[in-house]
Amino acid sequence: MKTLAKTLLISSVVLFAVSLTGPGGEFLWGFLKPLSALLFVNFFIMNSLAKEYSKYDEEYELRMQLAGAKSARAPVPATPRPMIRRPQLAH
What we know:
By secondary structure, the protein is mostly helical.
């Protein structure tokens, strides 16, 4: 688990526990429970997409290696493009 995911999970649990106390439940009319729920949802999404992140990173590294191998070749000379004349308007 990454550091951000751990931080989200720990802060979610701590905020929920504080919201169950008397002073915590009255703080900003229940601000801590929704905040802890949002942090937990962010943690859950990060956890469920962790495999996708690693797969994307591997594909990105492979693409960068292929791009580096292709750029090591001699550049292909550019072909001259034909000149296109624009129509002139009568004055």
